[in-house]
Design a protein that fits this description.
five-stranded parallel β-sheet; 5 strands; 204 residues; alpha/beta; Rossmann fold; binds cytidine-5'-diphosphate
C-alpha cells in the first residue's frame, strides 16, 4: 500500500518545516506544493499568462530561491484562485503522491482535493500573530529588514483569499487531524506528528 501524508494549513504554520522533518524520519519524498503556485506567481510577475505558465511549468523551475519572497507569495495566492491554473498542476502533484516509497505533500488542498485518500492527513495551524512572528524571525535571521505589522497584514490577506476562494479553498479535510502549533516548538510539533502518523500507519 502506498503511504501518503497530506499536510495542509495556513501561511507560515510550519507545514514545510514539519513536512521536511517527517519525510526524513519516515524516509519519504517531500513536495512543497506551494512552490508550484509560487513558480506560476513568479512567471506572472515576469509578464506571463497564468494559465499558460501553469500548463508549461517545468519541475526545474521549483528549485529557485527567488520564489521565497513575500511578493511572490502574494502573486501565488492571487493566481491560486484560478481554476484552470489549479487544474494544470493536479497531475504533477498526484504523480508525486503515488510514488513508491511514500510521500509527504504540503499545501492547502492536499487532503481535500489532491489526495483525498491520503493515509494520514494533518491540518497544521497556529494563530495569525504566531505565524506572522515566525515569518518575521525568518526574515530577520536571514539578515533582511522586515516590518512586523506588514507581515501580519499580508498573512491575514492571504489566509482570507485562500479560505474564501471558490476552487479548493483552504479547509481541514473531514478526516484530518488538526495540530495547533501555537505553543509548540518545531521539535515538539514533529514529535506529535510522528506519533499521529505512526498510530495510523498500516502494520508491516
Ligand atoms: O511551510 P509554512 O509556510 O507553513 O511554514 P515554514 O516555512 O515551515 O515556516 C515556519 C517557521 O516557523 C520556521 O522558521 C520554523 O522554524 C518555525 N516554527 C515551526 O515551523 N514550527 C513550530 N512549531 C515553531 C516554529
Ligand atoms: O509558505 P507559505 O505557507 O507562506 O505559502 P506557500 O505554501 O508557499 O503557498 C503560497 C500560496 O500558494 C498560498 O497562499 C496559496 O494561495 C497557494 N497554494 C495553494 O493554493 N494550494 C496549495 N496546495 C499550495 C499553495
Amino acid at each position: 500500500m502506498k503511504m501518503t501524508v497530506a499536510v495542509d494549513g495556513p501561511a507560515a504554520a510550519g507545514k514545510g518545516t514539519l513536512s521536511k522533518a517527517l519525510a526524513a524520519h519516515f524516509g519519504f519524498a517531500h513536495l512543497d506544493t506551494g512552490l508550484l503556485y509560487r513558480a506560476v506567481g513568479a512567471g506572472v510577475l515576469a509578464g506571463g499568462d497564468p494559465i499558460k505558465v501553469a500548463q508549461t511549468l517545468e519541475p526545474a523551475a521549483l528549485d529557485n530561491p527567488a520564489l521565497r519572497t513575500q511578493a511572490v507569495a502574494e502573486a501565488a495566492s492571487q493566481i491560486a484562485v484560478i481554476a484552470e491554473v489549479r487544474q494544470a498542476l493536479v497531475d504533477f502533484q498526484r504523480d508525486f503522491a503515488a510514488r513508491d516509497g511514500g510521500a509527504v505533500l504540503d499545501g492547502r488542498d492536499i487532503g481535500t482535493v489532491i489526495c483525498p485518500d491520503a493515509t494520514v492527513k494533518l491540518f497544521v495551524t497556529a494563530s495569525a500573530e504566531t505565524r506572522a512572528e515566525r515569518r518575521y524571525l525568518e526574515l530577520v535571521n536571514a539578515g533582511q529588514t522586515a516590518d512586523r505589522a506588514a507581515i501580519l497584514q499580508e498573512v491575514r490577506a492571504r489566509d482570507d483569499r485562500d479560505a474564501n476562494r471558490a476552487t479548493a479553498p483552504l479547509r481541514p479535510a473531514d478526516d484530518a487531524v488538526t495540530l495547533d502549533t501555537s505553543d509548540l516548538t518545531a521539535d515538539q510539533a514533529r514529535a506529535r506528528a510522528i506519533a499521529i502518523i505512526s498510530e495510523r500507519m498500516p502494520q508491516g
